[in-house]
């Protein structure tokens, strides 16, 4: 019986949790790489007496690939990009889609919303009711 190796439960659990944490960190890094260049998190909300303005910073190459929908008390921004590479030995293609939804704090006149670009800034202007 002296040939048995004692099992150290705490040490084995620490190893297990470290492996799980490393796995999820790698998955998050892969997601960051996947969404590189599609950063829709830079949003500024500007409340005025008679309107709400939302300003998004959008990469120039995505300017014509976005759809904006204003309904009820929310603004949805979505779109997709794709690219492909070919050479004499291989071909690769990638496709990315994204969706962001923002709820607005007050009632708005969605049917009167206006969307426009100035440089790399997408602005959604929504009158209040």
TrEMBL record:
Pfam families: HSP20. It comes from the Bacteria. CDD domains: ACD_sHsps-like. InterPro entries: A-crystallin/Hsp20_dom (IPR002068), HSP20-like_chaperone (IPR008978). Residues 34-129 form the SHSP domain. Belongs to the small heat shock protein (HSP20) family. This is SHSP domain-containing protein. It comes from Thermincola potens (strain JR). The lineage of its organism: Bacteria, Bacillati, Bacillota, Clostridia, Eubacteriales.
């Amino acid at each position: 019986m002296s040939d048995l190796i004692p099992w150290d439960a705490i040490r084995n659990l620490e190893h297990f949790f470290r492996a799980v944490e490393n796995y999820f960190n790698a998955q998050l890094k892969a997601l960051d790489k996947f969404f590189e260049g599609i950063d829709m998190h830079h949003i500024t909300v500007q409340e005025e007496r008679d309107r709400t303005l939302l300003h998004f910073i959008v990469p120039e190459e995505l300017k014509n690939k976005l759809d904006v929908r204003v309904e009820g008390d929310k603004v949805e921004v979505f779109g997709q990009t794709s690219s492909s590479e070919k050479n004499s030995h291989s071909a690769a293609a990638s496709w990315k889609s994204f969706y962001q939804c923002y709820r607005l704090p007050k009632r708005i006149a969605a049917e009167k919303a206006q969307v426009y670009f100035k440089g790399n800034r997408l602005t959604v202007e929504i009158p209040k009711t």
